[in-house]
Structures are given as C-alpha cells and as structure tokens.
Design a protein that fits this description.
Blueprint: E1 2-7, H1 12-21, E2 25-31, E3 50-54, E4 67-70, H2 77-80, H3 84-105, E5 108-114, H4 141-161, E6 165-170, E7 173-174, H5 185-194, E8 199-202, E9 208-210, E10 212-213, H6 214-226, E11 232-235, E12 240-242, H7 243-254, E13 260-263, H8 278-284, H9 292-306
Parallel strand pairs: 1-2, 1-4, 2-3, 4-5, 5-6, 6-11, 7-10, 8-13
Antiparallel strand pairs: 9-12
C-alpha cells in the first residue's frame, strides 16, 4: 500500500483525488482550510487508511510518503487575489518545503500547475512549448508567476537531484466539491441560476474557456503520476465555449428565472483559453470523456443538493 500525500487535500481537486485513490492507498491529506472545506473529506475521517492534518505548507513539516500531489493553493481569482502574498508564498515557499521532503523520501512529486502560466495568450490553442504572456504587475500575477516559479523549482530539482517530478498544467475544471462561493464561472452561474438570481457575465461574454469535468481531470493526474514523464503536460478539455454560451446553457438546464446582467471585465482577464492536449493524448493515452452537457448535469445536481 503506497503512502500518498495530497496537499490542498480538502479542496476541490484534492478531495476528488482522495476519492479515487483511497481504496488502494494510505492517504495523508494536508490543508490549512483557507479555501478547502473539511466537509469535502468528512467521509474519510474515520477510515484507517486516511489521515487529515490541518497545516499550512508555507511552514515546514516532517512527514514520510511515497508520492505527493501538490494541489495546495487557491485557484479561484476571487480567492487567490484576496491574499496575494500568501498565494505566492504557497506556490514558492510551500513547493520548496515539500520538494525537499520528497527528495529526502525519494518520492515522486506531481505539481498542480495551471493554464494561467500562459497568461493572456497570443498563441491559440496553447501548447506546452508556449512561454506565455504574463504581466508581473497584474493583480493575477501572484498566482500566475507563483505557479511559473513552482515549475522552475521542479525542473531544477529534477536536473540537479534527480527527483521524479511531474507538472500538470490544469485548464478550467468543474464538478462536485467546488465551493458555492468559489467565484469561478460554472459554480457562479449554477448557484445563481438555482437561486433564480441574476447571472453575472463579465465583459461582453464572448471571451472563451475550455471546461474539463473533474473526473476526467483526476484520471489525467493519476496517469501522469504513474508515467515516466518528467515534464509539463496540459490537462484539460479542448472543446471551446464562450462564457455567454455557458450562462445560457445553465439557465436552460436549471429552468431558472435568472436574467443575464453584464459587468465590467476584471483586470487582465484572459480573452481566450484552450489547451492543445496532443501531448497528453500521445504520452498518457488520455483524453477527456465527459461532454459539457453531461458534466453540467452532474454539477447542477451537486449544487442542488448542497443548496437545500
């Protein structure tokens, strides 16, 4: 039985990873609960092969493990901009703390990076070879540049110390265990629609995103961890939709009385985002399987339950 450490373990992706891995492994879940919820790991708290530790990875910790999925760091712009210094410390200092322990344990290390490292891209779709278009002065850069720095740390530890490192550049993901006030597109629209509140679209709604259902993303993360790849790999759905399309689909699916209202586009919000996933297809034999209609149905049902 492998001992797997999941940081950010009570968060959206960390808790979904736990659900997939807990049957055959010992899971250590670490979270400071700044953006995660203990409710997400409540089903596992009494299991003998699960341990939860409330801890901030900016602070050192001594722990043994065979593999680590470093998912720690708020991923919603609303949450990571709330405390930008904490955000960038989590990505840089937290990653340094964890990879030192991984080196000591001779453990595999998977870093949850992000499509945000590409910034407001001038290449479309974005390949792993694209170096990005990020403004260091931007209010988003605490996250974008923090994740870019964390990738650099992993590449250096792989080159210098031979640590088995993997980097997942995660594109927009949605599904169960998202917070209802998460601040991301699908969670925002779904909650607003179910409550028959105005749906807030920022800008003209013609900016695009590519949305991956969480189950597909988790399969990709596990495949990457199990591979011999020590490189960055895009993981996401390459089906592109406008924000306005998503709003209208959610309204229709929920039979909502909500009206769409338009607000100013947030500062430095990317105009388009779509992954080139040919590398994941070729090296991991991975492609997303859940289409948007099915994924939204499942997500709407999840939020309907938690809003009761």
């Amino acid at each position: 039985m492998k001992k797997i450490l999941i940081t950010g373990g009570a968060g959206f992706l960390g808790s979904n990873l736990t659900e997939k891995l807990i049957e055959n492994n010992f899971i250590i879940s670490i979270d400071n609960l700044s953006s995660g919820s203990i409710q997400n790991v409540k089903p596992y708290l009494n299991r003998p092969n699960f341990q939860f530790i409330e801890h901030d990875i900016i602070q050192p910790i001594d722990i043994e493990f065979d593999e680590i999925y470093n998912m720690a760091c708020p991923a919603s712009p609303v949450l990571y901009q709330k405390n930008p210094i904490q955000t960038i410390k989590t990505s840089i200092i937290g990653t340094l703390n964890l990879i030192e322990i991984a080196r000591k344990n001779n453990a595999k290390f998977l870093q949850a990076s992000t499509s945000e490292i590409y910034g407001d891209p001038v290449e479309h779709p974005q390949k792993e070879t694209y170096r990005g278009n990020v403004d260091t002065k931007s209010i988003r850069s605490c996250y974008d540049e923090g994740k870019r720095a964390s990738e650099t740390i992993l590449f250096d530890y792989n080159r210098i110390y031979g640590v088995d490192t993997k980097i997942a550049r995660i594109f927009n993901t949605y599904g169960k265990n998202m917070l209802k006030d998460d601040g991301r597109v699908i969670s925002n629209f779904t909650v607003q629609a179910l409550l028959n509140k105005d749906i807030t679209v920022y800008g003209n709604g013609f900016q695009t995103r590519s949305f991956c259902y969480v189950d597909d993303l988790i399969k990709g993360l596990i495949k990457l961890m199990e591979s011999n790849i020590n490189d960055a790999v895009n993981l996401g759905n390459n089906e592109e939709h406008t924000i306005l399309d998503i709003a209208n689909i959610v309204i229709k699916k929920t039979n909502s009385k909500s009206k769409i209202v338009y607000k100013n586009l947030p500062c430095d919000d990317p105009k388009k985002r779509k992954p080139d996933i040919s590398k994941a297809k070729k090296l991991l034999n991975w492609t997303p399987e859940t289409n948007l209609e099915v994924g939204l149905d499942k997500t709407i049902e999840y939020f309907r339950e938690i809003l009761k």
